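Shipment paperwork, digital attachment
Item: protein structure file
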Amino acid sequence: MQYFPALREGQRRVAAAREILGGLAGVGERAMPALALKEQGKGGSWEPVGEESMYAFVDESPGFVLTDTSGSVLALVDAGGRAKAVVQGVTARQKELLGAALEAGGVREFKGRVTLPV
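Attachment content:
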């Protein structure tokens, strides 16, 4: 896919992920966009992040150490673990409540390695 069409589709998917997080009480207003594109594919083509959305709580990620001591990062990720939208500063109690709310809404937990924007 060419760069700009891939970027537009990725931005649409990021907006959908932010909308999911936006509906969560207590943290929705802090939802920030993250990655819209995957790494460049073979032959110079670009790919948007995946359409699926799963959630993960991150304390650390390769190449990314949280310097904010107020809590974890909640990330909505695609099947490859690429973060599409994030909320910082999630407390331990909020993790329980948010995980349950996301599961009730049909969003499954991602258990792999999460890639956050740097």
